[in-house]
Amino acid sequence: MAEEVNVAAELAKLQGTYENTKAKQKPTDWNYISTISEMKVVKSTSGKLQVRVKFIILDEGDFFEAPEYAYYTISEEEGLAYFKGFCAVIGCELPGNFVDVPPALNDFAAQFKGKVKITVKTNKDQFRNIYCNGLHEDAA
Fold it and tell me: Is 83 exposed, middle or buried (0-12, 13-18, 19+ CB in 10 A)?
């Protein structure tokens, strides 16, 4: 379970990587319409910095209003690249200083009223991966 922490000093040390990492996306076919209800910087159980994104599924059916979580490991370049790609897809403008990312994410999630297309995939270990494929046409 990831835990929310004050990570300003660690983010400051990663500023150069943050500035130089280019956004990356993994396009997939989407299977759910959802909204974003939370975006927080947390630490994984192994101590890595992650952004935890909480999606709420809006499609009627077995998963209606069920939360799904995506995790982006932002203390590693590849995870940071996918996180930046995710932000580009949803229209979340990131600040220039990495230290300012946690409050910017909180503000974005609190104000987000749109809908996004996500893919939920379960791997062989029953771990679920969430991919955001963009804003839904019905986005507010």
Answer: buried
Interatomic CA distance for residues 9 and 22, integer angstroms: 22
Label residue 72 exposed, middle or buried (CB < 10 Å: 0-12, 13-18, 19+).
buried
Sequence length of the chain is 140
pLDDT band at 108 (very low <50, low <70, confident <90, very high): very high
Which are the contacts of 51, defined by CB distance < 8 A and separation ≥ 6? 39, 40, 41, 42, 71, 72, 74, 83, 101, 105
3-state SS, residue 116: strand
- What pTM value is reported for the model? 0.87
Mean pLDDT of the chain: 89
* Alpha-carbon separation of residue 68 from 10, 20, 21, 30, 124 (angstroms): 27, 30, 26, 14, 18
Handedness of CA 122, 128, 129, 134 (dihedral sign): positive
